[in-house]
Amino acid sequence: GVAIVVNRNQLKIENIRTREVIPGRALLLETTKHDGKPISILGVYAPNAPGENAQFWKDIQEWFSRHSVRKPDVMGGDTNVVEDAIDRLPAHEDPEGPVSALDDLKENMNLVDGWRESFPTTKAYTYHQTYTGSQSRIDRFYVKRQLIDQTYEWEIETVGIRTDHRMITMKLTSENAPTMGHGRWICPPHIMRHKAFKNFVHKTGLELIDSLRKIGRPLPRTETHNAQTLWKEWKDKIYTEGRRLAKIVVPKMDAEIEKVEQDLKNVLADEALSDEERKLSGAVFTEHLAALHRKRFRDSRKTAEVRNRLEGEVISKYWSMINKPKKPRDIIDRLLKDTSALDPADYSYESNSKKMATMARNYHSKIQNDRRETAPDIRDHTIEVVLSRTARKANNDQVIDLSKKLTREDIQEALKLSANGKAPGLNGFTYEFWKILDDRYRTAVSLEKEGFDIIKVLLLVFNDIETNGMVAGTNFSESWMCPLYKKNNRADIANYRPISLLNSDYKIFTKALTIKL
User: Fold this and answer.
1) To which H or E segment does residue 61 belong?
2) What one-character-per-residue DSSP string does 294-336 give?
3) Is residue 439 domain-shared with residue 293, that is, in the same domain?
4) Whole-model pTM above 0.90?
5) What are the protein's UniProt keywords (predicted)?
6) Contact in structure between 172 and 74 (CB atoms under 8 Å)
7) Per the structure, how many domains does the chain have?
């Protein structure tokens, strides 16, 4: 049979329509993309016998001639035929009948083999016949010729389930799709546990504490050398080191898979080897690669099963998330450059993400800055009037307590109350990161070893802010804005509600102040 699986995070499912072109062999799916434009996908599973294979392509062409439907933008599946000898190992031509029938269908629907267009001379295969060792590229995606420039990342990948086929993948975008970056960096859990990163954080952390101790004794506190500037410099160091390690540190299993994949590519591309040698060596690497992927898949499933056993069907974030309706991610495809234009014919749009971000920032900055200025004496008088009408006032003891600086206990309690799994700010450090550092310090103390006391550092930084105010340029209170669509024209930034994500150390500070209140 044939099936098409739709990822709800990628495509809208409200107006999906499917049509059975050939029962059990060809299925047509019609839906719309994020930009509202239609897309038609034809999934196929062609017969193996040459005569039946040729008739299959003719039947598809005949079906489309009888039905007024959109011809497929994408056609993919197991074709059970190759168009060129390069797609078989050992190399040989396929029978003329099915090849010609498929070629006629492609020409009628204006389809091209996207992988071969991207890699004209590369030898790679998707099907491995175990008992003979022969291989072929019978699994393919075809796309309309006018869409080929909108496809990218054509890959042939091994999957984690037991099968003698490999999977072909590609990404299809829209001609008007916005330019999208990689987003902000978040310190991944495996980097937090990595030995080199742990040692780096520990070493630079002890140096930070030593520098903080010297402020005022004997070094004077200045606007360019104080607890806040030292804290920013240290965060910048670990941010840079974390990003560096994240690019080079990969799990052992992933590293081994990458090596075997490269070995397979080298063998198949080695012209010094005979077809028989390539077939035998390729079979060995293909089977080894499949075994590695199956092991990784089993490990992943086991982890998922354990988590579901622990957190499934109990009140938890995990249970809520897996039962939450899945919807495509909200993407701002474009923004109006001039919202004052009355005639739609005069509208002009921006689709570059960085420029759209600048437009959103300027819009909200203007709202903030356009507020009417109030004279200081009028503002002070208004505050006094409002406070004079407040029935409850702090007594002398409460005033004394509130004037005290934050304590170690305040910060520990704030960190304890900070929930895991929350989105970090621009620096990429989550609450879990600071909790891990605190746990390591407690372990070091219990073993009578020198440890990096993150709570002490936060205490010195927070109290410096309370005493001297926030130092400009330290970006302590910086945030990144996430616009959430409300209603009306999606291309008008005024129709989005902004929320700000602050850095986790800033939120710990405000939480500690709340505890003191």
Assistant:
1) helix 50-66
2) HHHHHHHHHHHHHHHHHHTTSSSHHHHHHTSPP-PPP----EE
3) no
4) no
5) Endonuclease, Hydrolase, Nuclease
6) yes
7) 3
